[in-house]
Amino acid sequence: MSNNNTATMQQSFPMNGGDGPHSYLNNSHLQRQATNASRITIEEAIAKKLDVKCFSSNPFRLADLGCSVGPNTFIAMQHIVEAVERKYLAQGLKSEMPEFQVFFNDHVANDFNTLFASLPTERRYFACGVPGSFHGRLFPESSIHFMFSSHALHWLSKVPEELLDKNSPAWNRGRIHYTSGPEEVSHAYAAQFEHDMEIFLSARAKELVFGGMIVLLIPALPTGIPTSHIPIGIMFDLLGSSLMDMAKEGLISEAEVDSFNLPIYATSLEQMTSLVERNGYLIIERMELMDPTSKHVAVSGKDYTMNFRAGMEGIFGEHFGSGIIDEVFDRLYKKTVEFSHQLESSHKEGTQLFVVLRRK
Amino acid sequence: MSNNNTATMQQSFPMNGGDGPHSYLNNSHLQRQATNASRITIEEAIAKKLDVKCFSSNPFRLADLGCSVGPNTFIAMQHIVEAVERKYLAQGLKSEMPEFQVFFNDHVANDFNTLFASLPTERRYFACGVPGSFHGRLFPESSIHFMFSSHALHWLSKVPEELLDKNSPAWNRGRIHYTSGPEEVSHAYAAQFEHDMEIFLSARAKELVFGGMIVLLIPALPTGIPTSHIPIGIMFDLLGSSLMDMAKEGLISEAEVDSFNLPIYATSLEQMTSLVERNGYLIIERMELMDPTSKHVAVSGKDYTMNFRAGMEGIFGEHFGSGIIDEVFDRLYKKTVEFSHQLESSHKEGTQLFVVLRRK
């Protein structure tokens, strides 16, 4: 067994660590809103579909895949532990209430020091950190009862190779994402996502106990809506044009933009359904599109910009050098102001996929 | 359950993180020698005393308590995994060979980022980091098959309180350790160690599966030898007198030295035996004094100084301020040269206790 063979060939893009003004810790409230929005749905899934009677009693092991540095992961894990405790009570198993062990997983380069330092002191579980890519095995066979992943699976394991081949129709010149690009580019992204998900689902199926549950929250594209009409797609276009402006001004080269692509993909309900069915080890208990934020909450261009920066500063810095980060995100912010009508009128409904799977 | 209630009242003194010239990573070869010296003895304990037939097959879970940042912990875990694999083969259980999961434990403030970044890529186990003090619970009940702790248990959970009370006969004026101090100071340290070990052994007994094994390597005092005659004791005396010199020169105050004590204690074979017996949950399979380093390896004053600095820079910096660290350890090094005859002729035999315990 060599758990890292695949991981070392993959790219790793951790969220910003620490607790500074650009940290993920202080700029992840959009992800938190999305998780909160799904809280009741997760509780329902546990109440209705998780049969704790079929587990050997002790302990109950949970994992958060792509947990980043908190606090979102702590809030989510606490909710899930409480919901499972209620399920034990509801199934008349008070005397068999297990101890809980939570595995916080993210890339090796994730800031686990910050994660550990901010663990809630009054937690009701034993905590572990698991470094490594979820695009591969992370846990021993049949050892996890519940897996959760929120806003992480849209990160591909790597940029599809054909995007960097000048002779390929998928060469992504002048853009940094498939949004508003040619069909070949979208197809290359989709193929990479399908490959990644096949590995992801097979690994999780091995690691889950029989009857174990996976809950996934993933940014998604509603049927019939182009990526360029959803907020994340608009942001990718604005980021790309910010970079092209900088290239025109000679601050970076066009070749640098051409060779840079964000390995982020928004799946659809239909695609995800077919991938789970093709894998065959997991029952789809629920699969539906949700609104990631409440309709009453206005998300500003500043919010989107800070959120993007906390998640993507690392990958931009690696490619373009850390010296241009401020410039890139300053320009991005100005574009969000300039194109605020586009962001405001964008299609936000159903841009999050909620998935509940159970191990056969 | 609140796993951290006790931990938050304790003091935390991680080894130096990172990979710089004063890092534990680059200055822990004395601990590595000590672990290597015990390698064959650990293999013997596993071969003779670990009955893997009594475990449910999958996975086999190991923990290293007080692992620091590597590489020592990786070397030790690799040896133990290989020895357990051989035991499965020897017991005719090739077809039931388990997957391995290793829990690397240390204080929350330990540099887990460095630990994770330096994990061997070709490892034969799934890796987790477990933040928290081993002076308390770390794992779910009956969940670990093998625990290891090397050169960590001599760290007390805190400085005994009476040492800071000017009206107590255990007030430790002008010294930073019980070495060469009055009996009351030694007794206060011993009482704290006994209290800590009671909690340690009870926690481990809960966490181990029946038949599970603990192997401990602890700096120890051979019977009849005063602490001031073993290398670590000489180093404490030299450190204390370095600080008192600095106080006399006005670089720090005497009150600062009086109020500083290193929470480090060297147990004896007799004391440890009686503590394990009093606890009652663990069988002593082996308990003996060993030489921590080969007789043919000369350890220089520089080696000792660098080793002390990597382990103790944090605790000194917290009390005296990080500005004096270089000065303290420069002086310590000079003292090791001045008193090199004392270090060379010190009593080194049997200053490491090797303990094998098995869960009843």
From TrEMBL, chains A, B:
GO MF, one annotated term: S-adenosylmethionine-dependent methyltransferase activity
Composition-biased stretches (Polar residues): 1-14
UniProt keywords, alphabetically: Magnesium, Metal-binding, Methyltransferase, Transferase
Ranges where the record places region Disordered: 1-23
GO BP terms, alphabetized: methylation
Domain of life: Eukaryota
PANTHER family reported for this sequence: S-ADENOSYL-L-METHIONINE:CARBOXYL METHYLTRANSFERASE FAMILY PROTEIN
Protein's name in the database: S-adenosylmethionine-dependent methyltransferase
Organism: Vitis vinifera
